[in-house]
Amino acid sequence: MSDKTIEKAHHPFIRNKGMLVVISGFSGSGKGTLMKQLMENYDYYSLSVSATTRQPRPGEVEGKDYFFVTKQKFFGMLQNDELLEYASYVDNFYGTPRSYVEQEMEKGKDVILEIEMQGALKIKAKFPESVLVFITPPTVEELGERLRKRGTETEEVIRKRMAKAAQEAEGIEAYDYILINDNLDKTTKHLNYLIQDQHMRVRSQIDFVEKIRKDLRTYYTSLNN
Ligand code: 5GP
Questions:
Q1: Between the CA of residue 189 and those of 8, 126, 185, what are the distances in Å?
Q2: Beta 51-52 vs 92-97: how paired, if at all?
Q3: CA distance 225 to 212
Q4: Ordered mean pLDDT values, 10 residues apiece, the chain (225 residues)
Q5: Cα-flanking dihedrals φ and ψ of residue 174, to 5°?
Q6: What is the predicted pLDDT for the residue at 211?
Q7: How far is CA 202 from the centre of its chain?
Q8: What is the DSSP string of 34-66?
Q9: Which of 124, 150, 192, 194 is 20 to 30 A distant from 111 in Cα terms?
Q10: What is the DSSP letter of 153?
Q11: How far apart are CA 11 and CA 169, in angstroms?
Q12: Mutate to test the pocket of ligand 1, among 35, 94, 157, 175 (most ligand atoms within 8 A of CB)
């Protein structure tokens, strides 16, 4: 049995509509790599690709990392109600295209939104059933180090991103879970369990509960006849 099968067998529940999962974390928390690993290891997730007005970093691919758009196009999407949420972050705009998210959830996929805090709060307000997870490295030193190692940002941008991290740290209580990313494999597994366990909430299994009730009533009636 492959790892994938084991993970699936762990949750023999009815999967109806997929869940909305919001992942946030400081810039440099390693959440991008974590998302990549999660997608590679499990096939029941879909990762939403955001639209942004930011310039692509070297190696970033249009339609895979982001849809890189002009401000004009971004605000056009906003006006046409094509974005589920949006926010500004360090001089740029970022937003979640609505149609992909709705379509994947309908298919039963758990849709991951890797977005910042303002957007996360908007999603929680619109979709109270969504799960909000905050990813952090074990120490602040590691944050700065990871941003510098990436080598794609100027010192000025790194300073702005660290300032943003300090601001975001004030809002962590709005999240449902916090994961300390000290080991990629371990954190990926924890994240997967955490998300999949949400499917075991009774309110996520209402169809199953109703079926059990109905079957019991039928069974009981047949005993009395
Ligand atoms: P980066 O420029 O490092 O790719 O992203 C900057 C921040 O914007 C990150 O915290 C990232 O999670 C967030 N972000 C990316 N896409 C979206 C989005 O669609 N909506 C919101 N609200 N934040 C986003």
A1: 13, 28, 6
A2: antiparallel
A3: 20
A4: 48 70 90 94 96 95 97 98 95 97 94 96 94 93 83 84 90 96 95 92 87 94 90
A5: -70, -15
A6: 92
A7: 22
A8: HHHHHHHH-SSEEEPPPEESSPPPTT--BTTTB
A9: 150
A10: S
A11: 33
A12: 94
Which of 27, 35, 65, 116 to mutate to test ligand 1, by most ligand atoms within 8 A of the CB atom?
116
Alpha helix positions (H), the chain: 3-9, 31-41, 71-79, 98-106, 117-126, 140-150, 155-169, 184-198, 206-224
As given in the structure block, the two tokens for residue 214 are: 């109905």
Look at the pTM and tell me if it is higher than 0.85. Answer: yes
pLDDT of residue 15: 61
Closest ligand 1 atom to the C-alpha of 31?
12
Per the listing, tokens 């597994």 go with 189
Sequence-distant contacts of 80-86: CB under 8 A, at least 24 apart: 83/51, 84/113, 84/123, 84/126, 85/115, 85/119, 85/122, 85/123, 85/126, 86/119
